[in-house]
Design goal:
5 helices; mainly alpha; about 5% strand; about 140 residues
Amino acid sequence: MGGAGITSRPTLSGARFALIVLGGPPVGALVYVIAALFIEGGAFPGGETVQIVSFLFIMGSVMGLFPAFLAATAWAFLPKPSALLQRMALAAATGACAGAGGIVLMTPVLDIPVPTADIQGLLALCGAVALVTTASPLSGKAAN
């Protein structure tokens, strides 16, 4: 068949792993903040937009560490396709699963309710964007 094959064995450098774990949460938090501002029409009620955005960004960066660790671990073991769109799709799917699933796994530890489906969808979007950007699937070779 003429499709793109797997050209990268499942490995991940320590630097790339660290970038995904430490760089992914701020990226995901930024996506969350942008979505929240979009939903609220560009500003939060009560004139507290700067404080709320700051809080969301900081908490998102902290809460995203475990999902980012899950994504980096999964990315280390997944064989990467050679085709660009397939690598991007794999990174997005892996990040989405880690973003939504990681928070759900944390709920009993943090004693918080499981997020609603719409919030899980937003968390999946955050994870997808974070892994696509930090795993660097746009490079000339599959990100290691």
